[in-house]
């Protein structure tokens, strides 16, 4: 099972890459893609990525108040779900035909993110 330092590094990487991908979506992507739905989808992916990067940074720094233990499972689920959700959206925006087979992975990633957040309720 990953550790709290791993979640910190993963959160930092998701934050760094999310901001870089968001900047690309605002400035570079629009030179290649004019479909506003695809641009909006890119923005949605970066928003979720950045929001969940902050969650990972917090989870890496605190313990679960109910158990006193690190919330590693929640962090792992949030990381996996974010990677699947945002990652597939990026690929589908860039080339929908080539990565069409990844379409079903996006909602699975969303469910895994929900499982991570939901596990914090337990």
UniProtKB/TrEMBL annotation:
Gene Ontology annotations for the cellular component aspect, listed alphabetically: membrane
Membrane topology, from the record: Multi-pass membrane protein
The keyword Transmembrane helix belongs to this UniProt entry's keyword annotation: yes
TM helices/strands, residue ranges: 6-24, 45-65, 71-94, 101-120
Upper lineage: Eukaryota, Fungi, Fungi incertae sedis, Mucoromycota, Glomeromycotina
Protein name (record): DUF423-domain-containing protein
Localization, UniProt: Membrane
InterPro entries: DUF423
Keywords from the UniProt entry: Membrane, Transmembrane, Transmembrane helix
